[in-house]
Amino acid sequence: KFKDKRDIFLLSTRHKLDIVDTGKQSKKKESILKPDVILFYNAGKAGIDLSDQLASYSSPVRKSIRWYHKVMTEILLNTSVINAQIMHNIKYNDSKMNVKQFCESLIDKMLDLRPTSRKLPQQMTMPNTPKSIGNQKRSAASKHKIEETEEKCPRNRKLRKRCSE
Q1: Cα–Cα distances in Å, from 36 out to 8, 13, 33, 44, 127?
Q2: Region for 29 from its dihedrals, namely left if φ exceeds 0, alpha if ψ lies in -120 to 50, beta otherwise
């Protein structure tokens, strides 16, 4: 049992009851001592806290869907986008995009359809359409752009955006 602001109970078979100096000082200029297990826990928790914080800013989850859809949307979409953004920011140090900018750039990349030089396989063609329409090449550059409108959302009074094709 360790008491910081509250009682903290941790059980560990990996750590002993060693009290370690954290290298920080309290307001009274006394060095702060904590058990080794708490320092180990806090060091591992930092990355998860950052991921949760970034994910909370722009959640793709809707209020109207069922709880299990919310869980899968949160796990598949939000967590994977946050992880991809963190890896992107590590790889390209010069570009520090926030989550919203990174999502918009991902969507732009996904909508940017490049021309294909090979024909689509037969199963990729749409049913009930002639083969000539199903195998047409895509346009060289997509015209999809996000455009702000003058309309405001009645719920939160923010300007609406829509695709201008």
Answers
A1: 13, 12, 9, 13, 64
A2: left
Say which amino acid occupies 21.
D
CB 64, CB 49: distance < 8 Å: no
Predicted structure pTM score = 0.37
- How distant is the alpha carbon of residue 105 from its chain centre? 13
For residues 45 and 90, is the Cβ–Cβ distance under 8 A? no
Question: pLDDT for 33-71, tens place per residue?
Answer: 888 887 777 776 766 666 667 666 666 655 666 777 777
Q: What is the spatial distance between Cα 30 and Cα 159, in angstroms, rounded to a whole number?
A: 52
Handedness of CA 44, 45, 46, 48 (dihedral sign): positive
